[in-house]
Amino acid sequence: xxxxxxxxxxxxxxxxxxxxxxxxxxxxxxxxxxxxxxxxxxxxxxxxxxxxxxxxxxxxxxxxxxxxxxxxxxxxxxxxxxxxxxxxxxxxxxxxxxxxxxxxxxxxxxxxxxxxxxxxxxxxxxxxxxxxxxxxxxxxxxxxxxxxxxxxxxxxxxxxxxxxxxxxxxxxxxxxxxxxxxxxxxxxxxxxxxxxxxxxxxxxxxxxxxxxxxxxxxx
Length: 219
What we know:
CATH superfamily: Vaccinia Virus protein VP39
Largest sheet: 7 strands, mixed
Number of strands: 7
Number of helices: 9
């Protein structure tokens, strides 16, 4: 996903080396902890014949894991060409003749040009984007039914840890940065867009929330 000053920051940071590492880790261990939180909750809902838009899709783990749920189509959007290339291979033939799209670019900037989807997901994406309100607002505008996302909880040890990481990124002259955004601010954006929170879970490192349109029945 696009971070910091522009999509080049994310594209440069999430290069083929990191993409290959993520794929090997997924092949050995399966989805990461935050992704498991998101998938566990989404599987409580009926996804058959729904359309998925995965923002900041990385190597395509969410789309791959939900292929058996009967989704009608999937769209994967990411700012990193390396991630999208591996996502094509990782998702591969899992969807058969069902439509699959791979969109390269800054999602907050190109969202208006994309079709709406029933389900929009953002796993570990808002922490890589400086303007969480713009990102979530764009995602909410594309979602007809559900929006699920993960982010670091606003805790002192994570704020401190992120500051250290950002310091070393600065030392290495990387434009990429990571962020801990206020949960209340992000919730306000989604509520203003007409969503209500349907589920919430937290761990030591990650927070997960699922929002639904009011007319969508609870799982």
